[in-house]
Specification:
6 helices, rod-shaped, single chain, two-stranded parallel sheet, four-stranded antiparallel β-sheet
Length: 269
């Protein structure tokens, strides 16, 4: 208990005793007999102690009555700074909760980053195995970048062009109109683009490419897609066409020989 609180309690006791005395005095002035005045058996009183003397005489604090008025008692650290300590504890708890939340979020971001890196690595391996080149064509700026995270195992590397125009310059002139038309139509309609074209490599070798892409929703100036080197397929198709032409020629020669033999036989007859 603090000294101010004890003094307030003492004032209440004094006030109560004064009220009882005033009531008795008023009754006597009104002519009441002293024996008829109802007085309490004992006046309100409270034990008053000097805390310094309690400590001096070695009196146990547990022996001090709870309602005793104790003076000159120094408040404890908790009694003096209880509110500050509670506020500091609340601030520490809030900070601990925020730090824990940040650590959890950091751990989640690390897991997401690792999963994204693994996914990109697997996608890169799959693209390399399939000889694919992924790209982004942004035609809304002057320097339209063509970015590809994977590199094809061919001599023609369209991922090294700085812009769509530079990539288009690598396309053979007779196929440029088809590429531009396919890109413009895909940007205008939002439908998927699919076009085949030929490019000239650094050594002059001509290779066939097949590009497939689509404009993202709400963006009419960007295409996302992949490019596949279809040169082996085109070479196989050309070889098959040559084989079919040779077979047709051999068939015609064979039929002509048979026809000639038949005519010669008829003439001999």
């Amino acid at each position: 208990m603090g000294r101010v609180a004890l003094e307030d309690d003492d004032r209440e006791l004094v006030a109560e005793a004064g009220q009882l005395a005033a009531q008795a005095a008023i009754a006597l002035l009104d002519g009441a007999e002293p024996a008829s005045i109802d007085l309490p058996e004992s006046m309100p009183n409270r034990l008053q102690l000097d805390w310094r003397q309690v400590q001096r005489w070695g009196i146990s604090p547990q022996a001090v009555p709870q309602d005793a008025a104790v003076y000159f008692r120094e408040p404890s650290f908790w009694e003096s700074y209880r509110h500050y300590l509670l506020i500091a504890a609340a601030v520490c708890l809030v900070q601990f909760a925020l730090i824990a939340a940040l650590l959890v979020e950091r751990r989640r971001r690390r897991r997401t980053t690792v999963a994204l890196a693994q996914s990109e690595h697997r996608m890169g391996l799959a693209a390399q195995a399939a000889r694919l080149s992924m790209w982004i064509w942004d035609l809304g700026h002057k320097n339209d970048e063509l970015r590809t995270p994977t590199r094809r195992s061919t001599d023609v590397r369209t991922d090294h062009f700085d812009s769509f125009d530079d990539m288009l310059q690598g396309v053979l002139p007779e196929d440029r109109d088809a590429v531009q038309t396919a890109v413009s139509q895909a940007l205008a309609t939002g439908e998927a683009m699919e076009v085949e074209y030929r490019v000239a490599g650094p050594d002059g070798e001509v290779r066939w490419m097949k590009a497939r892409g689509r404009a993202p929703q709400g963006n009419g100036q960007r295409l996302l897609g992949v490019t596949l080197d279809i040169t082996p397929r085109k070479l196989a198709e050309a070889q098959a066409e040559q084989d079919r032409a040779a077979l047709r020629h051999m068939t015609r020669v064979s039929l002509l020989g048979q026809l000639s033999a038949s005519i010669a036989h008829q003439l001999n007859q």
